[in-house]
Design a protein that fits this description.
Blueprint (H helix, E strand, L loop, with lengths): L10 E5 L36 E4 L9 E8 L2 E6 L6 H6 L8 H7 L15 E7 L3 E6 L12 E6 L3 H10 L4 E3 L6 H5 L4 E6 L3 E6 L10 H10 L2 H8 L5 E2 L22 H10 L7 E7 L9 H13 L4 E7 L1 H9 L6 E7 L5 H9 L12 H12 L3 H18 L2 E6 L2 E6 L2 E2 L15 E2 L4 E6 L14 H7 L11
Parallel strand pairs: 7-19, 8-19, 12-13, 12-14
Antiparallel strand pairs: 1-4, 2-3, 3-4, 5-6, 6-7, 8-16, 9-16, 10-14, 10-15, 11-15, 17-18
Helix pairs in contact: 5-7, 10-11, 11-12
């Protein structure tokens, strides 16, 4: 089943969600913003209400908002310049979380927010010991239900085996992304529990069309035929994963039913590359970051397999590993001239989060120059009011992405989190947005979570990395929440 949300008018009133997050969506369903409800009288902030508003003279400035108005202590009214069916999903994303106004006014809202975030969430930052751990404590002034565990600790390890050892030893209460071979081990251990996620993500092999021979569309199509995606999923992904037929995951609105990717045909790929003068003798690189993600559980091994597959058609590939932050910066600036391995997990459950971000006119330079025909389809799809009106434009965009091949979609990675059996309320968010304030670590005062990598920063509005967003979301909270 695919859930969707849509907006029929250009005015939307949002009441703050009280009582924390609701249960996560079931397998195969993308999360959507939880319904809002009126605030109980006792939860209203103390002190007199001071109305605030901001309005544009008109919409000629090119932005999204005509006006934003604080209607009362618990309600915000947005008037949009044009209908945006994905607006509720977008405003629930943590990049648009509420900041503490007093803190911003006192500090000026400068660069210190990256390491000293302020917010209205259930936890607040105590200390970030670089390379070791991040410590949060319960926000006693939180407007909603207080966090169950007084202290929350984030730790990290790039090795899935190490994360599992720590969970089995009891030194952590929960871990992210156990290895593909560890699912059965966890499920068989009465002291542990496995919480699975649906594959609301995409792993892809990117190519930058400003560098030869990737500036040739027929060459990119040939490389699309050269990769045995099924082999990669079968050998290196956990249960619940699937071969990608397109960039969009099946569980997210905007997926095109019946659309298939190029069939695996190495002989045809080699013939095209020879016809285009790429073979014989083509040498290139494949660049990746050695961090585990739900969309790519074994990056180094997968890189080696892609290297071997391309060698079979006569392409010599050098594997290049980069530090995560440097890699993301280089990809965004369009500085990687060979293949690169990257992926995306849903920030919010709508096609705009996947397609506009990667292929719209404001996309990064990782794939090189954009494609105006894709831009036009995305523009039309983003402004129609209902899913039925929007879907044909996303079908068109997905077809054009297949034609232009800015990247090769490989897999939607099934993944999971694991917890001690006595952690009550444990769950794994389909979009990686676990709210640890809702979990009871067996009555202990401290909940310790171990993920794949250290956060890059802690200011949600400045981040795209999933490991980073999960951490900052403990401190920052949006107007709406996802189921």
């Amino acid at each position: 089943m695919r859930k969707s949300i849509f907006l029929l008018s250009v005015a939307l009133i949002l009441a703050l969600v009280i009582g924390g997050c609701v249960a996560p969506a079931g397998p195969g369903a993308a999360p959507e913003p939880a319904a809002t409800q009126a605030a109980p009288a006792e939860a209203a902030p103390a002190g007199p209400f001071e109305p605030m508003s901001m309005a544009a003279e008109n919409c000629d400035y090119g932005g999204l908002f005509k006006s934003i108005e604080a209607v009362d202590q618990m309600t915000v009214k947005f008037t949009l310049c044009q209908p945006d069916p994905a607006f509720p999903a977008k405003v629930a994303f943590s990049s648009f979380a509420i900041n503490d106004a007093d803190y911003l006014e006192a500090t000026g809202g400068g660069g210190e927010l990256i390491e000293k975030p302020n917010g209205t969430g259930p936890y607040k930052l105590v200390d970030w010991l670089r390379g070791d751990q991040i410590i949060f404590e319960r926000n006693e002034e939180y407007w909603g239900e207080p966090a169950i565990a007084k202290t929350l600790v984030f730790r990290w390890s790039a090795e899935s085996a190490q994360r599992l050892v720590e969970l089995q030893a009891g030194t952590v209460d929960g871990i992210d992304n156990p290895g593909p071979d560890d699912f059965a081990v966890i499920e068989a251990d009465p002291n542990l529990q496995l919480a699975k996620r649906s594959g609301t993500n995409i792993f892809y092999i990117g190519m930058n069309n400003t560098y030869p021979p990737f500036d040739n569309e027929r060459v990119r199509q040939a490389f699309a035929m050269a990769i045995d995606r099924q082999r990669i999923v079968d050998n290196f992904y956990p249960p619940g994963s699937s071969v990608a037929t397109q960039f969009m995951p099946p569980a997210i609105f905007g997926y095109s039913e019946g659309l298939d990717w190029y069939p695996y045909d190495p002989a045809q790929a080699k013939q095209i590359l020879e016809e285009e003068g790429v073979l014989p003798g083509f040498k290139t690189t494949i660049t990746y970051r050695d961090v585990v993600r739900g969309y790519l559980p074994n990056p180094g091994i997968v890189a080696q397999d892609i290297q071997a597959q391309l060698a079979d058609i006569g392409v010599e590939v050098e594997i290049v590993q980069m530090e995560s932050g440097a890699f993301l910066d280089a990809a965004d600036r369009g500085e990687i001239d060979g293949f690169h391995m990257l992926g995306w997990g849903a920030d919010y459950p709508d096609a705009t989060n996947f397609l506009d971000y990667h292929f719209g006119p404001g996309a990064s330079a990782q794939f090189g120059a954009g494609f105006p025909d894709i831009w036009e389809a995305l523009k039309e799809g983003s402004t129609r009011a209902t899913p039925e009106e929007r879907q044909p434009f996303y079908d068109k965009a997905n077809e054009l992405i297949k034609q232009h091949v800015p990247m090769i979609p490989v897999a939607h990675g099934g993944n999971a989190a694991a917890f001690k059996a006595d952690v009550e309320g444990a769950y794994a968010s389909d979009i990686g947005a676990e709210q640890f304030a809702l979990m009871n670590p067996g009555g202990r005062d401290t909940l310790v979570w171990m993920q794949n990598a250290e956060p890059i920063g802690l200011y949600c509005a400045d981040e795209t990395d999933g490991e980073t967003l999960r951490a900052c979301e403990q401190v920052m909270q949006s107007l709406l929440a996802y189921e």
